Amino acid sequence: MASPSLERAFSFSCWCLFPPFFVYHWVEMRAKMRLMGFNAETIKPLNEEAAAELGAELLGEATIFVVACGCLVLEYSRQKMQQRRKEGEQLAAWDAMRDEVDHLALVLEALQAQVQATPPPGALEELQAQMREVRAKLCIQDLPPAPQAEPTPEDEGPLDPGLGQD
């Protein structure tokens, strides 16, 4: 006598697993017959042993197919995440470069303002020449007057404009 769990397993396989295999066998045989040119209206059903073998084969192929699809989905999602990470790094690098360019633009503006504020080289030379002149004048004014010798009558010339003229 069969155990109750074996009977439940058998009834599960008879009612849940076998019908899809029978339908698969029916569709497959009908397609093959049409391709070969036969007109088969009735197709001999599979026995339970052949159905179990076909079911095991289909179940194995379905398992491999599901695992392969899962691997493809995981690889696709991994590639997408890697691409997003690279794009994020690239955007961060672009932002850093943009900030650096903005900073350098501000520094350039400050340097241009300093250059414009400084007098041109010709003006500098002109200012130096003016300072030399001012220093020369200041030096002359600061020196005590040189002692002057008593004028001699020869140096002074005639006292009377009318005298000494013959």
From TrEMBL:
Xref: InterPro entries: OPA3-like
Domain of life (superkingdom): Eukaryota
Biological role: May play some role in mitochondrial processes.
A Gene Ontology biological process term: regulation of lipid metabolic process
Region (Disordered): 140-166
Keyword GTP-binding carried by entry: no
Listed PANTHER family: OPTIC ATROPHY 3 PROTEIN, OPTIC ATROPHY 3 PROTEIN OPA3
Transmembrane segments annotated in the record for this chain: 9-27, 58-76
UniProt family annotation: Belongs to the OPA3 family.
Stored Pfam families: OPA3 (PF07047)
GO cellular component: mitochondrion
Keywords of this entry: Coiled coil, Membrane, Transmembrane, Transmembrane helix
Keyword NADP: no
Name the record gives this protein: Optic atrophy 3 protein
